[in-house]
Design goal:
homodimer; alpha/beta; Rossmann fold; seven-stranded mixed β-sheet; 11 strands; globular
Amino acid sequence: MRVQIILFHGMTLLDMVGPTQVWALLPGAELQYVAAAVGPVQTDCHVTISATHDYASAWRDPDILFIGGAGRPTLDAIANVDLIGFLADRGARAKWVTSVCTGALMLGAAGLLKGYRANSHWGTRDQLENFGAILSDERVCIDRNRATGGGITSGIDFGLTLAGIIAGDNVGRMLELLLEYNPAPPFGTGHPSIADRETLEHTRALLAAEYAPES
Amino acid sequence: MRVQIILFHGMTLLDMVGPTQVWALLPGAELQYVAAAVGPVQTDCHVTISATHDYASAWRDPDILFIGGAGRPTLDAIANVDLIGFLADRGARAKWVTSVCTGALMLGAAGLLKGYRANSHWGTRDQLENFGAILSDERVCIDRNRATGGGITSGIDFGLTLAGIIAGDNVGRMLELLLEYNPAPPFGTGHPSIADRETLEHTRALLAAEYAPES
């Protein structure tokens, strides 16, 4: 199974690492990290991660094409014609076209979600309509060969779900145990539908500031 | 808040990225990635991440000292006198001495868990007794200024819990919403106490093979 993971400047590291960690443990999986150039790519955790391939040397027909999201750097990514062109090209041949968080906006910008149900981070989901997607609020949204997760931490549920579909539920069950995925969120505020009003208002304000036009 | 994150060859990437992603979003947090040398460090996801500091240039008194775990490379890490010596030195002054997964074995090897309750990945927890720790099966185990998480994905619960203690519960609630941490494990097998017998037996066999002596 050939997994092609796209890196870009300012990416939210956990969006990518959640599913990648699951797939890296799959027997027979090969992982390829692709950016405009081989070498370090800055993430939002003040650390760089290294692309192993550039657009020219990346597999032409991966089994899984995957891109995670970001905060404000999402705006640059969806306007980056090289990145979006690469996604459109590989997405036309990949067996699975997938994303977590605002990575869905990049798939959308590449024309890959037209007529498909899709999800993104709860704070950005509505924007998927601009790309012809049908909005979904499923934490792991699968429509034919498109698989799009919700925000950041949903990548673990998303990665395990896809691993189960591809490698079988018995493998999925083992991976979930190996990853000790028996979560216990300390605050119980992890979705707008369960958060208290004050937390929701403050977090909405924070997201609005993140995406506000520069003055 | 100065967070010192230790990198080592073969590390399990998600162990580190779970809490790091939480802390990177904390207002005023500074993150430093430390290894024997500045530059790329291989992870278990077939990708490298770059240390920003070496042992000599790393903060002498971090607020949080953190190390994640690994599979088999754990054995090399606990036998690495430079790494363990560095942990012992910084651990003596850090406000918080912390780990996820088998990172606890490294803290133990550095003498930092003697007489403290601590946890590790469920498959390796028993080994903490060799280092004088008191075994705990709490997903996030806090005893005075020692905070040790369980296996791999526990790092998100661990990171959020510590963020709440340090920055206040209102910040913790916002981060949990921002990270959309409303988990939905697809298989319900994420801990030995809830996994079916076949999944548990196969996963135990897989871990035994991972840690078996080389022939």
